[in-house]
Design goal:
The chain is of the alpha/beta class and 682 residues long. It has 5 domains: 104 residues, no CATH class; 165 residues, von Willebrand factor, type A domain (Rossmann fold, 3-Layer(aba) Sandwich), CATH 3.40.50; 98 residues, Immunoglobulin-like, CATH 2.60.40.10; 196 residues, Rossmann fold; 72 residues, Immunoglobulin-like (Sandwich), CATH 2.60.40.10. The strands form 10 sheets. It has an 8-stranded mixed β-sheet with strand order 18-17-20-22-28-27-26-24. It is elongated and about 150 Å long. The two termini are 50 Å apart.
Length: 682
């Protein structure tokens, strides 16, 4: 124990006053004349002894009362391992305010962020001498204040305009980068982090800042939250007249059961359906909504539930692309071998002319114009020039898809073509003859192309193969259908947002009987729909991430603008080199619209980071105990923040304890010294 004002301890000499008074009274006698001493004789020795003991007890109590009062006034503290030097006139203080999405939890009408901001004046009031104050927010990372302030000078935090962010933070990385920038030789360094602490600090942070005193505030974990975790389309095939199936997962992270919770689906601002359900604590449920889109193009939807303590996960927006017309170009080295493909595509197109079909014969592919093409069919191409290779690469980069049907010419394809388009490597041509064949089997039944294909009898629906190109598949090449010797028949080649479907045997009766099987038309149908769907532009991104939008070459120089969920308009400058939009203004939660020359082009949504869920919390006590140098402490909600900081700096203040002891001793002294009823009557 130590004392802030040791000079006051000289007052302990006053504790002898009760003893001196008592001894003085013992040696002082008074002569009192009595007419009779019969009452004095009536006193017994035992009564006199009790009276003397009581007098000494009162002397002791009065002495202890004076001692406790003197100790209280001397500023008693219980020393700790704090590195705070009271004599230092300057100190450094860093305050990091976490304004990420998870701080949006609201209790009793005030968010955790606003509650943390209200702590700032209390923190500022404990600064002593001159303090080099540095204040930061986490999202986006920003310095709010940096200056020297003197003791007693107020700092107006309202001018900083700290706003609630929807993004995620990297709290400990940010704190580490800030502390590395602080170059000060003062012994007094304090770091205040006002956050909800989703994770504990890494080991390097714990070990690198022993000279800093760390303060972490406490925020109660949200106990009333139901969240929309995911929304996804079950069916990969999306057409205006097809039933659209949407799966959504709702989670109750509360400690109580939630009853009669409405879950609503909206498509283009129209409420399509509603489900009312109950949720057990710390459990989730999956719900399936079904609806007809009714139109083509981009459908904007959202799932909504009732508001709770954390409203940011009560609404989830999404976009779905429903194709209207798909442009298919068929290029054949021999026009006579394209009859079946043409017939199949016309069958798929139907009376509504769903497909725009262009058929061309090109024995040697020198130049390709694919700006208006969604799906390109290459029927056993023979020669492909360097310019054509580049055109195919650009086509794939823009999201186009290729259906490559290999045949007799594949063994002669130049290696540059295989390398640039990431095609499988030709091994040899295998033929079984007329009396035998290879059977086929589905390798990946979960592939979107086959996912909804209803094959009641797979053996009779799948083709027999007499001749094929044996190839060696590479990385990012997946078999969909294989022969019974495990050689691939249909391969899916992923290339960023596009794909190449590669068939190792052409649709020719001399090679196989694919043309006679019922699988080929629905297989082509699904491949075309999936290839033409513009999933890349409408794919959602995390709040604060860069959203990339593919732009046609002919529109790259036009005027582009972005409309945010709050209806703000922002001009966007395209990335001319890569022919796309790089949108970095995604700090709002919801659906964004992209316009070109005031015409709607596409839309996308932003999602909360999974790390910003209010259910993710680190254990503060374990976190503080992880600091081996004991230089971290918690600013508890139910304690005086100012007193907690002062106690951490100088030690635990004990004056209240001595005050309580003094009052208690005074009450005991009053009870013992008061006259009894018998004495009053006498």
């Amino acid at each position: 124990m130590s004392f802030l004002f040791p000079a006051v301890l000289w007052g302990l000499l006053a504790s002898f006053i009760p003893l001196i008074i008592h001894l003085f009274n013992q040696n002082t006698t008074k002569t009192i004349e009595f007419s009779s001493i019969q009452h004095i004789k009536a006193l017994k020795n035992e009564s006199i002894r009790k009276l003397k003991i009581a007098q000494w007890i009162l002397v002791l109590l009065r002495t202890l009362i004076i001692i406790c009062l003197i100790l209280m006034c001397s500023g008693p503290i219980l020393l700790n391992n704090s590195k705070w030097v009271p004599s230092a006139k300057e100190s450094v203080a860093v305050v990091i305010i976490d304004n990420s999405a998870s701080l949006g939890v609201a209790k009793n009408g005030i968010s955790y962020l606003d509650k943390n901001i209200l702590l700032l004046p209390k923190i500022f009031s404990v600064f002593e001498g001159v303090t080099n104050l540095n204040i930061y927010q986490t999202n986006p990372p920003k310095m709010l204040f940096s200056d020297f302030i003197e003791e007693g000078i107020s700092v107006n935090s309202e001018n900083w305009k700290i706003k609630q962010s929807m993004g995620r933070d990297n709290l400990w990385f940010f704190a580490d980068s800030i502390l590395q920038l602080i170059n000060s030789n003062t012994p007094n360094k304090e770091l205040y982090i006002l956050s909800d602490f989703p994770v504990t600090p890494p080991l390097n942070f714990i070990n690198n800042y022993d000279e800093w005193q760390l303060y972490f505030n406490e925020n109660e974990k949200s106990l009333n939250n139901i969240s929309i975790n995911t929304v996804s389309t079950v069916n990969q095939m999306k057409l205006p007249n097809h039933l659209l199936k949407l799966n959504t997962r709702i989670e109750n992270s509360s400690i109580e059961e939630k009853r009669n919770i409405p879950i609503e689906l909206y498509l283009n601002e129209d409420r399509i359906g509603q489900i009312v359900s109950s949720f057990m604590p710390n459990r989730y449920k999956d719900f399936l909504f079904q609806a007809y889109p009714g139109k083509s193009g981009i459908i904007k939807g959202k799932i909504e539930i009732i508001k709770d303590d954390f409203i940011f996960d009560n609404v989830k927006t999404f976009e779905i692309y429903i194709p209207e017309r798909i442009s298919c170009k068929v290029i054949a080295s021999d026009i006579n071998k394209s009859a079946f493909i043409k017939t199949a595509l016309e069958s798929i197109s139907g009376k509504d002319r769903f497909l725009d079909i262009e058929l061309r014969e090109m024995p040697s592919i020198d130049m390709l114009y694919l700006d208006q093409t969604d799906v390109l069919f290459l029927l056993d191409p023979a020669n492909i020039s360097v310019k054509a290779i580049q055109a195919l690469k650009v086509f794939l980069q823009k999201g186009g898809s290729i259906f490559w049907i290999s045949g007799q010419n594949y063994g002669n394809i130049d290696s540059d073509v295989l390398e640039n388009l990431n095609l499988p490597i030709f091994q040899k041509l295998i033929s079984t003859g007329l009396d035998s064949y290879f059977t086929t089997d589905i390798v990946n039944r979960e592939n979107p192309i086959l996912q909804e294909l209803n094959l009641r009898d797979p053996e009779s629906s799948l083709p027999k193969v007499y001749k094929y190109n044996q190839v060696k598949i590479k990385k990012n090449q997946n078999q969909i259908i294989a022969l019974n010797n495990n050689d691939p028949l249909l391969i899916e080649i992923q290339s960023n947002s596009s794909q190449i479907l590669f068939l190792t045997s052409p649709i020719d009766l001399d090679w196989n009987n694919i043309g006679l099987k019922g699988i080929i038309v629905p297989l082509l149908h699904r491949a075309i729909i999936l290839s033409a769907a513009d999933e890349y532009n409408i794919a959602s991104v995390e709040v604060g991430s860069i959203k990339k939008i593919k732009v046609p070459s002919e529109l790259i120089n036009e005027k582009w603008k972005l409309i945010t969920p709050s209806k703000n308009e922002i001009l966007v400058i395209p990335n001319y080199e890569k022919e796309r939009l790089d949108i970095n203004v995604t700090d709002e939660l919801g659906s964004y619209d992209v316009y070109v020359n005031n015409d709607f082009f596409t839309a996308f949504s932003t999602n909360l980071s999974k790390f910003e869920s209010p259910k993710i919390r680190a254990n503060l006590n374990e976190m503080v105990n992880s600091f081996q140098s004991k230089n971290a402490s918690i600013l508890l909600e139910n304690q005086d923040i100012v007193e907690s900081i002062k106690s951490q700096r100088h030690g635990k203040s004990l004056w209240r304890i001595f005050l309580i002891i003094s009052i208690s001793l005074f009450l005991i002294e009053s009870i013992i010294s008061r006259p009894t009823q018998k004495e009053l009557s006498n």
